[in-house]
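Forwarding these from the shared drive since the link keeps breaking.
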Amino acid sequence: MAVSVGFLVILIVVAFVPSLIYLIWIRNTERYLREPYSRLLKIFVYGAIVSVVIAIIIESLLLSVLNLNLQRIYQILGENPNLTTLVLALIIAPFVEEAAKSLGVFASRKRMRDIEDGIIYGAAAGLGFAATENLIYESNAFVTAGAEALLATAIVRTLSSALLHATSTSLFGLGIARSSWQGRRLWPYYLGAVGIHSAFNFAASFGVLYQPNIGDSAYLIGLIAALIFAIGGITIMRAKIRMLDKPA
């Protein structure tokens, strides 16, 4: 029992510490009126717990509806063994998860003191969601393939998925801030976040989808594309924080 508890602690640390380090990094991009950690941690915890539960429930329901109508869809579009994976990764997950993550940001919109706070709040919610998602994937990797698979999964997801969730939800967070401060419309930012998420998921799924056609190089292509997408996205959002950041 002691070993099991100890290993569970290790899994949690491996999944959550990188996201918390990213949160500090993104928060400190802002030079003036930095957000208090207490506020950001609340949004992080919301993303890690509440948004994950909401996403799991809604995605499960939508996936059930999809599976019930799969044969009918096949009749219209033609039979494709990857159809469920594509719909879940490119449509269901991005729309549901970006909405679920952003609810915590929207609830905190009146506490934003600057436009760039929306970016930071969004990143906090996204990183919380990513931490729990990483915990699930990394635990599954260890159970199915051992410690080496756990380490590989942790490294790849820390450098890709965690940054993706921070980037996509920070874009919607920017929209929430601009909606509150400037009366801007929310939906372009939401669709932008969904689009980023969907494009990343396509890159991450590239190996599974195209390995039968082009071989194992499909996994490498997908991995490189996902890393470029995630790292490039968070670099742009941090640049946006610096551009908007001004002394009070």
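-- next protein --
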Amino acid sequence: MPKSVAVLFARKDSIYKKMPECDVWDQVRDATKYAGNLPVVAHPPCRLWGKLAHMSTAPKSEMELARFSVRQVQRVGGVLEHPEGSRLWKEMGLPQQWEEDSLGFTLKVPQSWWRHRAAKMTLLYVSGMRMEDIPRVPLIQIIFNQPTALIATSRRGLSGKFCTQEEREATPEEFAQWLVAVAKICRKIK
């Protein structure tokens, strides 16, 4: 099967590696070298952009990976995924949730719709399609795929089930399939 979507900044054990239509760029392949023309699904590191960035020991240079991802999504079309509250949107002048600009739009979705154990609220910046063309999520999927776990850095004072670090970082298979479907619709803008 020919490759139809490039996945940038995938985990080493990414579900995308099992999807034959995906050209997967992980740390070994170095996603910053991607210069192709396939639409992209970008999962750049978020730890320096999120609410807990002050706790991260990652080098500040890692922030450039998210900026690179925005430029790629705007160049060839596709979708960028980052957690709710990411400061990337403000820095790069991206539209706020449910808003559009000349290059794309932003959605906020819970990954629990695609069987993540936690709600995991996520921002998606999509470039290369109109908002009304986004693939729909079946209502039955939204109703029955409710969160059963929490994401927390500290469990003090909390009760219930918690996601492991791997669960926090991994993309659920159904969500990956949906993101690839979104990217396939996107077209080059610039």
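The first helix runs from residue 63 to 76. Residues 97 and 107 are 5 Å apart (CA to CA).

- D.
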